[in-house]
Amino acid sequence: MSANLLTLSGVHTHIAAYHILHGVDLVVPRGQLTMLLGRNGAGKTTTLRTVMGLWQASAGRITLGDQDITRLSTPQIASLGVAYVPENMGIFADLTVKENMLLAARSAQRASQIDEARLQWIFKLFPAVEKFWNHPAGKLSGGQKQMLAVSRAIVEPRELLIVDEPSKGLAPAIINNMIEAFGQLKASGVTILLVEQNFNFAKRLGDRVAVMDNGQIVHAGAMKELAEDESLQQKLLGLAL
């Protein structure tokens, strides 16, 4: 079994006439939380969407474990145990929280068929999901919608969880709750790839970090090393902490 669950090798992505990714090399080790950082427009979201098959790589190779997934469709990739939470969360606003969860639980036709132990685990991670179970999802706050989006992604066991900017627009108290939840998810054995703009969020959670600029990975290593090197932060991210 490969030590890396996800590997991108020389991945290029074109969107219409635009060349967005320019040979991305990225590894996501099993059982760890990898942060993907970079300035706006660096190519982070495009990388996630390319991994999920929402946009097709024009060159290079993407592997999940030992399986080449470069040309697979999004449903095929999802069926291999990969869940994706996009930046816009993808919540069905007119459906209840329960109905949103049921749609994500592909093995269940009724809410009563969702794995009860797993559901109770999710309720402990995100109490708002239980509290607003029968409420329309569109009525939730931004933080509650983000909790629902992550809950849907993990309602069935996943090998890899990919999340785009989970802390965006959230209050500090909700961010702390999200950090605790992702920490528990990692401890349960889920491999996680997170795109983040909030560096404090990133350094509290990340095991590994990769930094993107102009469609390429320009730095990769331990999150702890980047968190302790302010000059490197300034060079890579323009941060002054």
UniProtKB/TrEMBL annotation:
One of the protein's GO biological processes: L-amino acid transport
Keywords for this protein: Amino-acid transport, ATP-binding, Cell membrane, Membrane, Nucleotide-binding, Transport
InterPro entries according to UniProt: AAA+_ATPase, ABC_transporter-like_ATP-bd, ABC_transporter-like_CS, BCAA_Transport_ATP-bd_LivF, P-loop_NTPase
GO molecular function, one term: ATP binding
The keyword Iron-sulfur appears for this protein: no
Cell division is among the record's keywords: no
Signal sequence interval, chain numbering: none
Domain ABC transporter: 6-239
Top-level taxon in the UniProt lineage: Bacteria
Family affiliation: Belongs to the ABC transporter superfamily.
PANTHER family according to UniProt: ABC TRANSPORTER ATP-BINDING PROTEIN (PTHR43820:SF2), HIGH-AFFINITY BRANCHED-CHAIN AMINO ACID TRANSPORT ATP-BINDING PROTEIN LIVF (PTHR43820)
Protein name: ABC transporter ATP-binding protein
Species in which this protein is naturally found: Ramlibacter rhizophilus
